Amino acid sequence: MNIIRYIICFLLIQSHGLFSQDYSSIRKKTRLAIFSILDKTNQNYSDGSVLNLDKKLYDKLESELVNSEKFILVDRNKIESIMEEQSIQQTGLISDQSATSLGKLLGVQLAIFGSLNDIFQEADWVTNEGKVSLDAGLKIIDIKTAEIVLAENELVSVVLSQNPGDEFSRSGVSNVVLKTAEIFTKKILLEGNKIPWEARITNVLPGGKVVLNAGMADGIKIGLVFHIYSLGDEIVDPSTGLSFGFVESYSGEIIVLKNDLGGGKASLCEVTASKTTINNGDVVKIPENVAVPIYRYYHKKNKDHFYTKSSNPKGKWTPQGIEFYAYAKVKEGTVPVYRFYHKKNNDHFYSKNANPKGKWDAQGIEFYAYAATKEGTVPIYRFYHKKNQDHFYSRNANPKGKWNAQGIEFYALPPK
User: Fold this and answer.
1) How far apart are CA 144 and CA 61, in angstroms?
2) Pairing of β 292-299 and β 266-274
3) Considering only Cβ atoms within 10 Å of each terminal Cβ, which end of the chain, N or C, has fewer?
């Protein structure tokens, strides 16, 4: 039975490529909780009703975060329930240490705090226009490190089409709150993007199989390989008592067999290597520095070929598929491949040479590839079209068209 299992895993690895995995389809969603939004403004409308800025901003921010499809937001009722269980008063004054403890109980990665410091309205009697401004603060705590990763104030303003006089414009208040929520969402997204993707083992099954809490709905594909890490001792700063997370140790490797469990929200995986016992709750991560796809694009107007790690580059580029696989970070035996651009000729150029001859604008390292042949790699040939002033890179040694061969530029991994 074990022989059959290993044959199946071997065939999956061969067909999907262990060293040239494409993880670009994975849609990372950061788990977060809005712990509090504190309203310090103490302002009312002219009829005496309160502005309810804290509730307005909470609702707008919650809506913006959910609609971005980049976050998993913990329901406020669950937060209140945990706070009640932990005997934490809901005064809005949650300490950073309490937030870290709460965040771990809720399983979130970021804790969000907001503050509304002041709101005021200005009138221009000459133009008969007005302006509503909101002074709002945003604080973000990384639960894993207990670090405050962002603490900023924003003065957000919206213009009113009419002079509202002394009374707060209800539409103006609503619009300035919405604009604040949009600004906060962008800042939270930037911090969320800094957190690497990870998932968890939810079930350890007989026969060397486990269930991963991410599936087809999250962009997980059959044949993808992941590494598993067990959580050891908690790292605590003795001077502050703050936790910096847990010691992680490598436990093993898994390969995805099925990605449609739970309506595509979970995956069945085979354990292909195990160093220690794998347990529920173990962390699952993308292996470090696996080969990534290098996409080829063509700009019809500029007659320019473009190669990039991005599956959606800016500009009017026509996709032409994956040309080869290379590395985003340096790997033993690889060299940097630099990207250049010739503004006059509208030509992108890729080379191992950091200082090529000609009027090339350097655009940095695009990827890392092999300078010499290595098992499993293929040569990537460089060509030049004199009329179109276009450089072209291909696995094909004899591409169609009037291309002048310029030799092998580097070696890379072929598409699966």
Assistant:
1) 23
2) unpaired
3) N
Q: How far apart are the first and last CA of the chain?
A: 28
Going by C-beta distance under 8 Å and a sequence separation of 6 or more, which residues neighbour residue 347? Answer: 304, 341, 389, 390, 391
Residue 348, phi then psi, degrees to nearest 5: -95, 140
Instruction: Please name the residue that has the structure tokens 């083992």.
Output: 201
How would you write the pLDDT of the chain (416 residues) with one tens digit per residue?
A: 455 555 555 555 444 444 456 787 788 889 999 999 999 998 888 788 888 999 999 999 999 999 998 999 999 888 888 877 776 655 455 777 788 888 888 889 999 999 999 999 887 666 667 889 999 999 999 988 888 999 999 999 998 877 666 678 888 999 999 999 999 999 999 999 888 899 999 999 999 999 999 999 999 999 899 999 998 777 777 776 666 667 889 999 999 999 999 999 999 999 988 889 999 989 999 987 778 889 999 999 999 999 999 888 999 999 999 999 999 889 889 999 999 999 999 999 999 999 999 999 999 999 999 999 998 899 999 999 999 999 999 999 999 999 999 999 999 999 87
Rounded to 10°, the helix 96-106/76-85 angle is: 110
Cα dihedral across residues 221, 223, 229, 230: positive or negative? positive
The amino acid that residue 412 corresponds to is A
Of 322, 317, 289, the residue nearest 305 (C-alpha)? 317
- Burial degree of 375 (CB within 10 A; 0-12, 13-18, 19+): exposed
Q: How far is 53 from 60, CA to CA, in rounded Å?
A: 10
